[in-house]
Amino acid sequence: MLDNILNILSCDDRMTTTLYFTKKDKNGYMSFSPNVSDEILSNLIEGAKEYIEKFIDLEVVEYNPTGYRDSTLEFTTCDYVGNYNEIIGSFDEGNIENLQDEVNKFNFYCIEICTEDHNIKLIRRVTKFKKLYSKGIIAAFNGNLLNKIDDKILGMDGEIDILVLNDENIVVFNHIALERIFKLNDQFEIKASQALEVIKSTNTIRNYDMFEDDCLNDKRYQKILTKMLREEGLNNCFDNFDNIIETVELFDLDIEVKSVPEKMIVYRDKSQIMDILRLARDSYYRSTVREKPGIDNKI
In this structure, are residues 288 and 236 in contact, taking their beta carbons and an 8 Å threshold? Predict the structure, then answer.
């Protein structure tokens, strides 16, 4: 995948290259497209190519909202982030007025490279120097003369946080950046609610409404439920209830389970949420050789 991307970035028939600066607030996204020299664009793209090459040999894995695994490169889709089109729509409305007044508000920039067959967007969070020029002095050498820089400046480098290929696939170079750039917190709540609806349909958890509220009021559990929604087995997670009872006893879980008059997990408080989610995900196991109990914590 990355080899193909590098080939696209290196092709000579590049049609257009555009730079956008974007800010986001409670009203949404607003983008600005300044006039940029070919030298700056070329330097940023060359830097991005060198940066991408560092990830060539890494294992490519699906984006995991609960955490990042070292020595891997994550990917996801534009559909997954939910509000991708909102950002792209702001590019269409890009303007170049009052850019100087907006510098401190930019959250990220995007270099869009369009060829005849492909569209690549290189996205990077902005490094802000507001604190430096408000508390101290920023200076640069002009020959042997050190001059104070009075203008507001932006930090840009060749690294990238996110790469979007053909408005379909997203390569995640910086795990946390995906949350920061896109409104993933909203998506986590939506997808967690969907996962909880599946769990609710099993009619297995007593005091379900309290369980649902406690899950949705904790961002960590929202992320876990978001991940569970994409895994197999959620629809019948509590079907083998005899095994649920055995697991609760084997691991001495602080959970009350009843099999008569109906099969039920009795929810009491937040301290039980993780164990219940692990039961739903079938994270408890006994090793085949030593028959030693264990927990799959990759949740």
Answer: no
- What confidence tens digit (pLDDT) does each residue in 254-286 have? 999 998 888 899 999 999 999 999 999 888 766
Q: Residues 9-28: pLDDT tens digits?
A: 887 666 789 989 898 878 88
* Residues pairing with 164 in the sheet: 121, 170
pTM above 0.90, yes or no: no
DSSP 246-285: HHHHHTT-S-EEE-SSS-EEE--SGGGHHHHHHHHHT-EE
Placement of tokens 């970035």 in the chain:
9
Query: Order of strands across the sheet with 119-125?
Result: 28-32, 16-25, 108-114, 119-125, 162-165, 169-172, 72-77, 59-62
Distance, first Cα to last Cα, the chain: 27
Look up residue 82 and give its two tokens.
């939910």
Q: What is the number of other CB atoms lying within 10 angstroms of the CB of residue 129?
A: 17
pLDDT tens column, 120-153: 999 998 866 554 445 555 566 566 565 666 666 6
